[in-house]
Each structure stands twice: as C-alpha cells, then as structure tokens.
Amino acid sequence: MFVEAEDPSKILAVDPNPALRNRLDAMFNGSAQASLQSAAEALSYQFLGCSSAAEATAAIRGGIESGQVFQLALIENSLPDAQGLDLIRSLWQADADLHVVLCCAGQELSWEQIAAKLGESDQLLILEKPFSDLELRQIILAALGKWQSHNVMRYMEQQIELRTQAIEQANKNLLQAEKLATVGQLAAGIAHEINTPAQYVGDNLKAIGDFFASVTRLLEQYRKLLAAHGEHRQLIDQLEQQADLAFILEDAPLAIAQSLEGISQIVRIVQAMKGFSHSGKSNAGWINVNLALENTLLIARNSYKYVAEVETDFGDVPAIECFPGELAQVFLNIIVNAAQAIEDGKKGGGKIVIRTAAVGDCVEIRIADNGPGIPESIRDRIFDPFFTTKDFGKGSGQGLHIAYRIVNQQHGGSLSFASETGQGTEFLIRLNRQLRR
C-alpha cells in the first residue's frame, strides 16, 4: 500500500523489557526534547509497544486489516514466546514490505545464523546493544526512509505495469481498428466477389429446374404413349425434339459443374474472410504460409484485380509457428499497399509478385510491385506510425507501422524493403520457423 508523505509513520517495538519501549515513547510520542525538529507538533510518528511475539503478530495483522500498516518494527531478539528471528519470519509472511530493526547483543547472533533463518534481505537492520539515543534515532530514520523509498518504487512499478497493460491494450485496439478499417474498405469489393458466383449459381439452378420440369413432362408423355401405343416411335422422337432433350442432356452436367464451382468459390471467400475477422483473438499456432497468402489474396482481390495481375511463386516451405491472424494482417497490409502504389502511379500493366522460400531456419516472403517506388527522401519514415503520403481520408499511416511491429516485435522476425524509383518496391518478410520465448 502506498502511503503519502504526510501520513505518520507507524513504528512497532517488541521488547519484554519496557526500557526500549520507554525510550521510544520518549523519543517519538511527543517529546520535543528528543525530536530533531525540537517541536512536539512536528513529530510524524505513531509508536506502539508490546512485550511478546503474539502481541506483535496481532498488531501487524490488525494494521493490515485496518489499512494502517506498520512501516517499521524494532524487535528484541529474546522474547518470552519466540526468538526474534522466528518472529521476523512470521511477520514477513503477513507483510512482505515490513522493515525490521533487530536489537541484540554483539555476541548473541552471527550473520550466518541470521542469513540461515531469513536469507539476505535489505529490509533488515541489526542494532547492537548497548546503543545510544542518537544511534537509535539514526537507524530508525534510515529504516523509515528505506521503507518509504521501497514503497514508492513498488507504487511506481505498479503504475508502470498498469500503463504497460494500457499501452498493450491500446495497441491491440489499434490493430483491431486498422483491421476493421481495411475490411471496411474491402467490404464493397468482397460483396461483389460473392455476388458474381452467387448470380450464376442462381441462374444455373433455375435452368436446371426448368430442364427437369421439361424432362418430367416428357417422361409423363412417354409413359402414356408407350402404355397405349408402343409402336409410335416417330411421335416419341418428335416430342424429344420439341423438349430439346439432346441439349438438356448435354448442358445439364455443365450447369451443375458451374454451380458447384460457384458454391466452392463462395465457401473459399467466406472461410478466408471468417479466418481473417477472428485474427484479433488469435493464439500462437502452426500455419502453412503459402495457404495463408492464398487466403489473403482471395480477401484482397478487389483491391488489386483492376490495377495489377498477381503472380505467385510459392516454394516448398515448412510450417511456421506464429500468430496467424496478426500475420494475415501483415500480408493484407502489404498487398493492399502494393496495389495502391501501382494505382497511384497510374502505370499500366501493373504486377504484384509474391514469392516464398525456405532459407536456413527461416521462411522468407517477398511481395514486390512494379509501381513508382518509394522516394528516397521518405524511405526512412515509411514504418513510422501515422506517416502516409496518401490524401486525407485514403490512409491512416498505420498499415506498414502495424506490419513492422507485428513482424519485428511480436514475432521476432524482420520486415525490410528495397525500392528503386520508377521501378517498384519489394518487401521482404523473414520469419523464424518457431517463435522465440
């Protein structure tokens, strides 16, 4: 518990002989003569004395329960119901922040005995008897100063931990916000990609329905005619021509195949989108990088299909351990960035080339475009947060920064690039096969 500087320090003295308690009472409970400030009202201590280990334990626990903890305990080594070292160990179990001054005769305890019982702790000071009021005062002031410093450091550590957690949560929120913004930009295109196969699936299924209706009517006539006049072959042939049975038998398998392909494409798009949308909750796992890139290309297709062709050269790479959702965000950000660079360069014949390869214990992913390249004057800033060369409303400047943070900080890999003005840019992602812990 952090104690403000103006709060009085609470001191506990444990001694079966009242001599020490009387001296402390005179020094810290209102004696102007004993005070360094020479004024009783300036004293900033609350003193409590007790004569046994049981009383001391009850006092320490009572202080914890009431929120008025003791900062310092002066303990005589020889007590009627316990040894001082045993009491100190018990009190530290109740309050790990308590500082202690152990009072003992010079030959009574060795450091080895103390260390064996309590270990080496900077919260323990030894005061050898006999001692003067000056020695007692100075060691108490030093111990209280150490307690306050320790307390302040603990408070600062707690605040740093809280701030770190807040920053980590803010980074997660920023990542999710960037993801949602990217998905929002792609939503119209994804809807179009889903609508196109769905359209011909619907048309083909309607045609299949009409075909089977015709076949059903034809078969009904077959049954009637064959039942009555099995010799009317010419009439049957005429009815087959009217129903265009030959075309139905030829086209129906094609219609069914197209329908199945359309449904399969819808499933692939939806599954890829579903996997990407859950990336904010991803845990570490093993993935096939080539498959992850294929899914990302499917998601991002509307961002590049009108401006660039995509060429893939996937090598035989091993599975890698990573955070799949976050890594998908990296791929998406860089692919969309490449498409936008080609589009902004207004250069025909746009091309995005994606290659993967196993290099030693690493997997390399190269994503290159033949856009205008990155101007040399800004190359050292492209991974900076919020840096963007796009017009207002067209980019947040977070895409490449987030990709860099995910690869370099979260995965312990590296994200770099090479660019040539007028020729294009290639981003190189290098990832270890296994996360380093």
UniProtKB/TrEMBL annotation:
Coiled coil: none annotated. The keyword Zinc-finger does not apply. This is histidine kinase. Its EC number is 2.7.13.3. It catalyses: ATP + protein L-histidine = ADP + protein N-phospho-L-histidine. The lineage of its organism: Bacteria, Pseudomonadati, Pseudomonadota, Gammaproteobacteria, Methylococcales. Keywords: ATP-binding, Kinase, Nucleotide-binding, Transferase, Two-component regulatory system. It is an enzyme of class 2 (transferase). One of its GO terms (biological process) is phosphorelay signal transduction system. GO terms for molecular function: ATP binding; protein histidine kinase activity.
